Amino acid sequence: MQTELSILYRAMQQFLLYSLAAAVSTGMMFLDVTLVGNQLDELSYVEISQEIMLLISIVLFLRLAWKSIDIRSSSVLIAGFLAVCLSASSIVF
Q1: Alpha carbons 13 and 1: distance in angstroms, whole number
Q2: CB of 65 closer than 8 Å to CB of 59
Q3: Phi, then psi, of 13 in degrees rounded to 5
Q4: Membrane-spanning regions, if any (predicted)?
Q5: Rounded to an integer, what distance in angstroms lies between the CA atom of residue 12 and that of residue 89?
Q6: Contact 40/32 with Cβ under 8 angstroms?
Q7: What is the pTM of this model?
Q8: Per-residue confidence of the chain (93 residues) as pLDDT tens digits?
Q9: Which residues are CB-neighbours of 45 under 8 A, at least 6 positions away?
């Protein structure tokens, strides 16, 4: 019974975390378009939140690479790919 409750509790935590991430990204778009009147250009709340989420993902994959030896190479590869995406999105034309 205790393990079933802990599994249910963990699933509820994950659901709330994923819901919060979806709400933040949707809320940033709403904030950009409705309140600021921005048309989603290069310097907007959406772009800034996207770069912050990419940076968090990079840090998490590097932390995973540090802790897990068996999946270190794939975690570093994914973190490197996300770092390239972050640097490519930071270039303003």
Answers
A1: 18
A2: no
A3: -65, -45
A4: 15-36, 48-66, 73-92
A5: 33
A6: yes
A7: 0.74
A8: 678 889 999 999 999 999 998 898 888 888 888 877 766 666 778 888 888 889 999 999 999 999 999 999 999 999 999 999 888 876 665
A9: 28, 29, 31, 32, 36, 38
